Amino acid sequence: MKLHKEGHIILAGFFLTFLVLSILIFLYLPAYFIWLLIIPIWVLYGFIIWFFRNPVRIGESSSKDIIAPVDGKVVVIEEVEENEFIKGRCLQLSIFMSPLNVHVTRYPVSGKVIYTKYHKGKFLVAFHPKSSEQNERTTVVVETENNHKVLFRQIAGAVARRIVMYAKDGDEAKAGKEYGFIKFGSRLDIFLPLDTELFVKLGDKTRGGIQKIAELK
């Protein structure tokens, strides 16, 4: 299983910590306590390894395709006013990621990155209606070859306190290619033209990097 680079230092730190705890438990606690404590510790470590998995996703897409940027569940589909960059009405599609989902974030469209920004903010639960505007977040805008501008945001949640964004202005975006990572539960919002055709509905599960979720006109 391939592990994401963002997890290397964290996994090493937890391994050393849990190893020391295990040794201390063996040395100083009664025998009947040992397995009651050690097994949960290493089960937790296994979960942390699982969280930082980075599966290889290779899919095909056209210039009009919107590819799911993350694994998760569709929690919002609505018309909204986007005031940071688009400055107008858009179709917002939001995907919530639980701690069990893969947390690699991928470009939903191909084109050129024309805008990137990191915003400090709060840590409301990721499904809160105001999280898209008030939480810690990043914004990326890609202009497609058909001159559509697609904006998307990584949003931190109550548990997720670390957002990593690799995208930079001028980068070439490829649908399905990794552009960031969010640690421990979060949400990703996509803002699309109003006439975009959607292929998902509320409650649907998504597969980042390979699933076509919409198509631009």
User: What portion of the residues fall into strands of 2 or more residues?
Assistant: 35-45%
- As laid out across the biggest beta sheet, the strand order is 9-5-6-7-11-3-2-13
Low-confidence stretches: none
CATH superfamily of the largest domain: Glucose Permease (Domain IIA)
Based on CA atoms alone, the radius of gyration comes out at 20 Å
Name of the level-1 CATH class of the largest domain: Mainly Beta
Could you say which overall geometry the principal axes of the C-alpha atoms support? elongated
Number of strands: 14
Give the topology.
Blueprint: H1 8-28, H2 31-51, E1 65-67, E2 72-82, E3 88-97, E4 104-106, E5 111-119, H3 131-134, E6 137-143, E7 149-156, E8 163-165, E9 172-173, E10 178-182, E11 186-192, E12 197-198, E13 205-206, E14 212-215
Antiparallel strand pairs: 1-14, 2-3, 2-13, 3-11, 4-10, 5-6, 5-9, 6-7, 7-11, 8-10, 12-14
Helix pairs in contact: 1-2
What can you see in these coordinates?
The protein is of the alpha+beta class and 217 residues long. The protein folds into 2 domains: 5-51; 65-215, Glucose Permease (Domain IIA) (Distorted Sandwich), CATH 2.70.70. It is 21% helix and 35% strand. It contains 3 helices and 14 strands. The chain has helices spanning 8-28, 31-51, 131-134, and strands at residues 65-67, 72-82, 88-97, 104-106, 111-119, 137-143, 149-156, 163-165, 172-173, 178-182, 186-192, 197-198, 205-206, 212-215. It has an 8-stranded antiparallel sheet with strand order 9-5-6-7-11-3-2-13. A 3-stranded antiparallel sheet has the order 1-14-12, with no helix packed on it. Strands 4-10-8 form a 3-stranded antiparallel sheet, with no helix packed on it. A hairpin with a 5-residue loop joins strand 2 and strand 3 (88-97). The longest helix is centred in the N-terminal third of the chain and has 21 residues, at 8-28. The protein starts with 7 loop residues before the first helix and ends with a strand.
